Predict the structure of Cytochrome P450.
Amino acid sequence: MRKNRAEEWLQDKKRKYGPISKMSLLGTPTVFVCGQAANKFIYTCDDSILANQQPSSIRRLCGERNILELSGHEHKRVRGALVSILKPEVLKQHVGKMDEEVRKHFKIHWHGKKKVLVENHRRSNENCVLLHFFMSYISLISLYNVGNAIDEDSYLQRYELTDIRNRAKCKREILVELFQQLLKGVLSVPINFPFTCFNRSLQAREKIRTIVMDLIHEKRAAMEDQITSPQQDLITTLLSLRNADFSAALSDEEIVDNVILIMIAGYDTTSILLSFLINLLANNPSVYASVLQEQEEIARSKVSEDLLTWDDLQRMRYTWRVATETLRMTPPVLSFFRKVLKDFEYEGYLIPKGWQVIWAACMTHMDECLFPNPSGFDPGHFDKQAPVPPYSFVAFGGGARICPGYEFARLETLITIHYLVNRFTWKLCHPNVSFSRDPFPIFKDGLEIELSQRSQVN
Ligand code: HEM
């Protein structure tokens, strides 16, 4: 599964045994389900019957109180808190900040370059411009406001970070570096011996935990002194949430765990979308031309230093359809696990308590009854005239756990594409790049592009 395309493995399974079959995965009895009916069943199933199940590495690195580990009332409470900062009304305030960061990124890493390594085959930041790297910058500033909160020297002394001093030049880079270290362990074998990848990730988690805890204290003090507004950033919003009796809605540990989880959930997903979008645009000149036309019109309506606004982003309808089509063809998250807590019946089969369900939600993306000519890249799949059937496009999940970061991902993607197509043209250094899953989709030889500067519209 690691080396081959998971898509093919799953399709093969469906072809041989149909949309429901059983198997043993590492000794655990497992039911495999896929299809529109399976999506509907699982997204609407009570979490007292089917519970979320993540690899133990995620629990240990994100912490016991991260949203993925919670169910029922606890899940609703923490989810409500996260949604309260990720909802459109709040994100509107962050569009300008995101725009500034994207421009800065292009100026530093793209302008004047002949070639750019967008993504390397290990999905690490070595020798490559790494969209992930700067995406997390955006998340950090927009959501956590780290930029001003911590003094750089005290960082290094207090958190014993001298080992990354040479690589990371400022406090945000230091935090990003730590997150990258943590991320390497998320899908590694969770063996905690000195010098294992997982051990280094656990150490990074401890440092991040201390930093976020300090931020919590700092921001709580600022709130008490009334020198910050309640929705200034993620941590302040989470701190300001109250229960009916005015006690804090989330404990400090819950805030730490969910700040870490949000960084992980929003990190690879959006950067994968952008990398694949860059690849698909390079291979589809007519789609590229329509995206360019839409983005040039928006650029022309602005004075060169104007930042993009929320209204500008609402006009990028075609570009978002192209991004959605990219997610249909290459969903960052292909399948999920659920744990069976109570016996239940599905399609005439009794699934016993204690089993697990592996469910390939995004296989509906390649069902030709739902998306005609599914292997063709066609943003027309998302035209308003032909609405997408329910439970068929599920790149952002569905039901009670549908991705709360949808709007945030949309903003990051549209702003980036706006500056990318207005400022550069590009072609792939290695045409016909292929990808495998690890379990995220990853270009086998990385993604390198040859860049030409356009005369700037804005
Ligand atoms: C293209 C970008 C993204 C994709 C494709 C994506 C996809 C998903 C999917 C499929 C799920 C549901 C998992 C399940 O059913 O178990 C999910 C959950 C989640 N996502 Fe995203 N995501 C993206 C970006 C983001 C961003 C930017 C953030 C944060 C800023 C975020 C935060 C979360 C959180 C917190 C959850 C857990 C929700 C819960 O358990 O209630 N995601 N995401």
User: Anything to note?
Assistant: The radius of gyration is 22 Å. The chain has one domain: 6-452.
